[in-house]
Every structure is written in C-alpha cells, then in structure tokens.
C-alpha cells in the first residue's frame, strides 16, 4: 500500500466527501495530540490512538447530523 491508500473496503456514499473526511481526521488527531504518519502507514500507531481518532470523528459526525436535522448551525 502506498501513501494515502487504505485497505478499508468501505465505500463512501458520497465520494466527494473523501477530502472533507481526511481533513476531519487530521483536525481530530491534532486536537488529541496524535501524529498521523506522513507516509499513510498506520501499522506503527497504537490501536488506542487510531481508535480515539475514529471515535472522535464519529462523535463529531453525529453532532453535525443532529444539528442539521434540528436546523441548527454547525459549529
């Protein structure tokens, strides 16, 4: 696998969202003080760190969806 490639078989429903999700991943990692490997290889990262990033991304996406449903502004 090269830089930026993923082994995930998940398909995005909206492929154009890929860049936004990548940006969100880097923002969340920075907030948590976790360094994402520049070469895209996550094999040396602790599962705890990758799980924390994924959990915070999910939490934020749920928050955005709840606000969109209720008609509120996204923070």
From TrEMBL:
Keyword annotations: DNA-binding
Pfam families per the UniProt record, alphabetical: SASP (PF00269)
Family annotation (InterPro entries): SASP_alpha/beta-type (IPR001448), SASP_alpha/beta-type_CS (IPR018126), SASP_DNA-binding (IPR050847), SASP_sf_alpha/beta (IPR038300)
Protein's UniProt keywords contain DNA-binding: yes
Entry annotated with the keyword Transcription: no
Gene3D superfamilies per UniProt: Small, acid-soluble spore protein, alpha/beta type-like
PROSITE patterns, alphabetized: SASP_1
Function (record text): SASP are bound to spore DNA. They are double-stranded DNA-binding proteins that cause DNA to change to an a-like conformation. They protect the DNA backbone from chemical and enzymatic cleavage and are thus involved in dormant spore's high resistance to UV light.
Entries under PANTHER family matching the protein: SMALL, ACID-SOLUBLE SPORE PROTEIN A (PTHR36107)
Record family assignment: Belongs to the alpha/beta-type SASP family.
The name this protein goes by in its record: Alpha/beta-type small acid-soluble spore protein
């Amino acid at each position: 696998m090269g830089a930026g490639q993923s082994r995930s078989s998940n398909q995005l429903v909206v492929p154009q969202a890929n860049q936004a999700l990548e940006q969100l991943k880097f923002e969340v990692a920075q907030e948590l003080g976790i360094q994402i490997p520049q070469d895209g290889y996550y094999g040396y990262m602790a599962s705890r760190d990758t799980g924390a990033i994924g959990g915070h991304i999910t939490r934020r996406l749920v928050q955005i969806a709840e606000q969109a449903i209720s008609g509120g502004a996204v923070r």
